[in-house]
């Protein structure tokens, strides 16, 4: 696959060629329904559409000469006052920042009172301030500034709205971003590709992939051309929503929009394949990139592909990709190595995992918590509990945080090594150092008690899970039943089996087999 050029004839491409011709059905009413639903709450922060609209109509035609496209006639004055404007903008921005993230409209208007007249003549100065608020991730404050501009008849153009939408995107306020985008049309301010890109990115960060795709569909209806950034954000939305087919369809539809896929769009599509376990398609997309003269796989793309192979348990292919990177003058980073180590862990290759971990410092890379967590887990699965604990004890010396993931991996290693005392000791240390335990932690600890025939401790751990707001599952109960079976307590095993439905845990083959074995041992010894 890697030696030649992919012309759409490889197995993965043939399997999904039909996706090119399947245009996704977008429900544009979904966006309007959301906006209508949020109207009352959003208008408390934004201003009403009516107020903005009437303020907009009051502006006379002479003010049109003050927009961003007509500043050429005033360029000399702008150059003479450039230094002063920068100082004024910095001072004004700092005064606004001093108000905090949720100031009142009156507080903002008071600070802007002396500046609004200047903004009428030089609207670009307002853009500078709004962009500064966007960088600080202060959407509510940026909206207050926009409202003050409207009330003082300062014409707000697409540049101003884009800066505020960007603030909403950076501040995680996707609802506000959508509301502002709709307000632009009502105010006869035409949204451009930057407006839509920011709104789509806001939806991505808010996990609203359906809305993001609806926005992408709307762009064609309002004759706003999508660009590579738009497609990258939309594909990334599909990735986070687990919609790998739609991500692939968007990527393959880019040529029809006269857009050439770039590293970011391809990486997002490969990541979508990785999340869905479609490692074959992810590998095919990487291969197809070599056929595009305008784009070459980069480190991000390779990291995404290696992660896809890791999720698919293809450790050999993952190592092959890692080995090819130097030939392409690509330097692997911590993410790349962590994915490769994790691939070895899933493939039961603990020796290779440790070798990769040891190679990182030689390449000038500092292993992080993810790298060590994967290596510890690899040692645990390989029955190397001593090595797992050695790696765990090295973390403080490496100035790395001992977190839940690394502790879970070490406890699992103890379970496989039948070291229940060590597992429970680590569980106590997690409590003492305020490392939250999760269901994986408890299940591994209960399983270690099972291996040591410590049925009382297993039942105690099981009963303590609700105190940590954890609900026992089938694995938890099955491990506890097995512990009772090994301890020769068939009555407890049967009682726990019968109580599983009350805990919404579905008994499986392991649960029943352990209970049956417990009863059989009880019969033999009676």
TrEMBL record:
It comes from Polarella glacialis. Residues 50-90 are annotated as: Disordered. GO terms for molecular function: mRNA binding. Residues 67-90 have a biased composition (Low complexity). Residues 55-66 have a biased composition (Basic residues). Residues 129-221 form the Pentatricopeptide repeat-containing protein-mitochondrial domain. It comes from the Eukaryota. Keywords: Repeat. This is Pentatricopeptide repeat-containing protein-mitochondrial domain-containing protein. Transmembrane segments: none annotated. PROSITE patterns: PPR (PS51375). InterPro entries: PPR_rpt, TPR-like_helical_dom_sf, TPR_mt. The keyword Transmembrane does not apply. Pfam families: PPR, PPR_3, TPR_24. The keyword Repeat applies. PPR repeats lie at residues 157-191, 192-226, 298-332, 333-367, 368-402, 403-437.
